[in-house]
Amino acid sequence: MGKKTLKQRIVDASVELFQQDGYHNVTVDRIVEHIGASKGGFYHNFKSKDELLYEIHDVFISYVIQQSQNAYDKYDTPITRLCAMLQTLTTVFDMYQAHITIFYEESRSLSDEYSAIIHKKRDDYRDILQKVIAEGQEAKVFRTELPCTIVTMAIVGMINWTYKWFKQSGPLTMEQITEVFTDMVLRAIVTEQAIEEAKQFMIKR
């Protein structure tokens, strides 16, 4: 991995400081002092602290959207696509746990302009996931009596709460937790005719 850019260093320092003391208690002066940079360097990369907070949010949201689209393109059945997307979503909570914590704790501090962009990206992610659920229902591999929108929101809501309790030093790895989530989701939504395909992703009894 190459040397981090000043922008990356500012983001990393901000994530650390915001998580430690809260967004409103950390100044630009403190951020640049923390990494030995200048305020000029900060404002060359960000026009405001608000834009920096947006960047922290955008890093992981953009990542999960791109990886989810890649998963959709790579696989060709609703079950394999869904499992790959669950893997992507849980992985981001491991990779960007601090970013996500700040997102949920400080998102109300975003300006209307940046908040609108973030909400659009969150909708974009849900649209990809809901598309997979809908396609699975059309193919009769996912239960059609379950409203597609509610299934989608239930999956997102369940995994989103991970940021509150997941610890990298905990007894289960994120990979193991992903297996549990995948098992729970598949057992809840797959049809009898699709159970054999789904079994390869379920926890063995």
* Fourth-tier CATH superfamily name of the largest domain: Tetracycline Repressor, domain 2
Backbone CA Rg:
19 Å
* Number of helices, where a helix is a run of at least 4 consecutive DSSP H or I residues: 11
Tertiary shape: elongated
User: How many DSSP E strands?
Assistant: 0
CATH architecture of the largest domain: Orthogonal Bundle
- Structural class label: mainly alpha
Number of individual domains: 2
String of helices and strands:
HHHHHHHHHHH
Which spans have pLDDT < 50 for at least 5 consecutive residues?
A: none
- CATH class division of the largest domain: Mainly Alpha
Overall pLDDT level: 92
Helix fraction bin: over 70%
Question: What name is given to the CATH topology of the largest domain?
Answer: Tetracycline Repressor, domain 2
Biggest sheet, in brief? none
Report the oligomer.
single chain
Termini distance? 41 Å
Q: What fraction of the residues are assigned to beta strands by DSSP?
A: under 5%
